[in-house]
Amino acid sequence: MERKPLKGLHHVSAITANAKKNYHFYTKILGLRLVKKSVNQDDTSVYHLFYADERGNPGTDLTFFEIPYAGRTSYGTNSISTTSLRVSNDEALQYWKNRLKEFDIDHDEINGDSGRKTLAFRDFEGQRLMLVSDENNVGVAGGKPWSKSPVPQKYGIIGLGPILLTVMNAENTIKILTAVMNFRNKDSYTTTINGRECDVYVLETGEGGSGAEVHVIEDAEKPRERPGRGSVHHVAFRVENREELEKWIEHLSELKIPNSGFVERYYFRSLYFREPNGILYELATDDPGFETDEDFEHLGENLALPPYFEDQREEIEAKLEPLDTRR
């Protein structure tokens, strides 16, 4: 059964131990919009927060599961080691360098190793993030920053950029991306990590560009990462709709790749599986989107629950620490 190529990055889901501080950082400092305040559908006692462009367009979502007692991450290999966030141009990076300095956010210098200018930084829990300039980028279009953001729209974050994977065996990861997921080998570059040079392999899907890239580094010297607060749980890639998702489920099953099968997430439909180095991938549909149960003007202001959890609302709300996201 013929499948359409994956369209690019859909979302990245990470772990925080403090929803209130997380909300403040990603909305008040990074200027993203909270487009959905919900719960982890696999553990409804904790929040699942979705930050994105003005309406949560696919490819713009950075989400967080709150795990209040999550320990510190022991960084290492076989991990999603950096999440990139796109900005419109090189000028925006200079704005962000000044803004990060103003808020005393740990950050590096502007770098150009990948062929695009980038600015790496860390959030209050050590989450590894990188701003990437779209100055010369072509391919998957970015989103539109929210007009009510504290960051001027011309400098605002417009979506997810390349996702960096650090793995023990790059060949195995690249084989899954190309032979199974139909990514294309694009190019490679060299960067310096902890004082030594590393090769980075660039793969792309769909229309290509920074919104559709995975960058892979091989590092067999580090121990395996032990995740905690400040780590990434999984990365999701875009499929158009449920029909296409069903084709991918059939494809993985034919290849005898263990997978979750169809999973209903209400705001999108999903499929999960792990690649050979243990990194969790999700395929997620572009539809229905975040305006299914809230109107555009009030996205993220109240606790949103999919219909199949609505009869548990009182019990769920009783377990959650109050989080005021009204604007």
From TrEMBL:
SUPFAM superfamilies cross-referenced by the UniProt entry: Glyoxalase/Bleomycin resistance protein/Dihydroxybiphenyl dioxygenase
InterPro entries per record: Extradiol_RC_dioxygenase, Glyas_Bleomycin-R_OHBP_Dase, Glyas_Fos-R_dOase_dom, VOC_core
Protein name: Glyoxalase family protein
Domain VOC: 8-134, 159-286
Organism: Evansella caseinilytica
Coiled-coil portions: none
